[in-house]
Write a structure and sequence with these properties.
It is built from 13 helices and ten strands. It is α/β, with parallel strands linked by helices. The longest helix is centred in the N-terminal third of the chain and has 26 residues.
Length: about 400
């Protein structure tokens, strides 16, 4: 019960799927007409009074945006479920960290950013790649170590990458992305660009010393850096309150202002990110805490049920699920019909199913890729792997 109470820390008690008055209205407007939504969980701030105070409790959106949010989150959910199946079938090997339950953060964040803003994240990065404009084929092929993958099949689950959209990947070392984010923010400021850098990390990485070192430099130089703590309440199998003396992660910047956001609502994330981007460009870094939850274990090797109860997981699914929340919202507001929702879901399932088959048929990386991106002249240097016979023998018929 202590863990369940921690999910709502700083927020008033409320059932997440209860629609606000604003969202009960029926809309027959066009796809791009502005709709104002009242958010049901207030933001909680740290040291924001000296700036612009807290964001208000309304967000402007459109029918098109809300339908796209639902469609994108549903696609992400189906992709991660497919990855689960492929891992259990041994098509995916090694580490595999799934994002299902946290989709609202990725989708809401992208609604407030553009592809000239930079993002770097942890190893839970499959959906972030989609958010940055990547494809399901690129993710699935990378998970299977195939040449059509986002990193040409040589990175795997933890290393999605899309430079053309300023997505500098997942990172396999806990917390290592934080100083990279500060460097990206420095680049934006040095170049005079009106853009921000976002460094995402989990509550399990929140006590890393490198986070605070990088944040100190960012604060000294007023860099446009947004730290985003995706607090899913468990660092691997350790509950936040067992690992952090102060689990209010939005306050952990001390002298840097912070904001706590309902990370299970894509529209709340959008509003909070709009505020954070404006703040970072005007005043420097800010620390966001996204209150969220992951349904799978830490990775596919973790059943996720030894340190929490199945009742806890079921409770979050029933009351806070981000995909179901948006489905309910667009149906209650009569923005779409039930039949249209089913068509969206059918189309997204087809995308995932086809991507799986394409990825299975994708070739393995060429042998020479084993030593690429190491030295410019690795062939001349005869670079190998210490302690093993690295000679590549060709058995092609003469």
């Amino acid at each position: 019960m202590a863990l369940l109470r921690s999910f709502a820390r700083g927020f008033p008690a409320t059932r997440q799927f209860a629609p606000s008055l604003a969202s009960k209205r029926s809309f027959s407007a066009s796809a791009d007409d502005t709709i104002t939504i009242e958010l049901d969980r207030p933001f909680v701030g740290h040291k924001l009074d000296q700036f612009d105070g807290l964001p208000d409790q309304t967000v402007e959106t459109t029918k098109a945006e809300m339908v796209k949010m639902f469609s994108d989150m549903y696609l992400m959910r189906r992709m991660e479920i497919a990855a689960d199946v492929l891992y259990k079938g041994k098509f995916i090997r090694g580490f595999c960290h799934l994002y299902d339950g946290q989709e609202a953060i990725c989708v809401g964040m992208e609604a407030a950013l553009n592809f000239k803003d930079s993002i770097v994240t942890s190893y839970r990065d499959h959906c972030t790649h989609l958010g940055r404009g990547g494809t399901v084929v690129e993710v699935m092929a990378e998970l299977m170590g195939r040449a059509d993958g986002a990193s040409k099949g040589i990175g795997g689950s933890m290393h999605m990458y899309r430079k053309e959209a300023n997505f500098y990947g997942g990172n396999g070392i806990v917390g290592a992305q934080a100083p990279l984010g500060a460097g990206m923010a420095f680049k934006h400021k040095y170049s005079g660009e009106p853009n921000v850098a976002c460094a995402l990390y989990g509550d399990g990485a929140a006590n890393q010393g490198q986070l605070f070192e990088a944040l100190n430099i960012a604060a000294l130089w007023d860099l446009p850096l947004i730290y985003i703590c995706e607090n899913n309440h468990y660092g691997m199998g350790t509950a936040e309150w067992r690992a952090a003396k102060n689990p209010d992660f939005y306050t952990r910047g001390d002298y840097v202002p912070g904001l706590k956001i309902n990370g299970m609502d894509s529209l709340s994330v959008k509003k909070g990110m709009q505020y954070a981007k404006a703040h970072a460009l005007a005043h420097g870094p800010i620390v966001l805490e996204m209150d969220t939850y992951r349904y799978h274990g830490h990775s596919m090797s973790d059943p996720g049920s030894t340190y929490r109860t199945r009742e806890e997981i079921t409770s979050v699914r029933q009351e806070r699920d981000p995909v179901e929340r948006m489905r309910k919202r667009i149906l209650d507001m009569e923005l779409v019909t039930t039949a249209e929702v089913k068509e969206i879901e059918k189309a997204q399932r087809k995308i995932v199913d086809e991507a799986v088959e394409i990825s299975k048929a994708s070739p393995l990386p060429a042998e020479e890729k084993l030593f690429s991106n190491m030295y410019t002249n690795s062939k001349q240097l005869n670079i190998g792997i210490r302690g093993v016979d690295h000679t590549i023998v060709s058995y092609a018929a003469e």
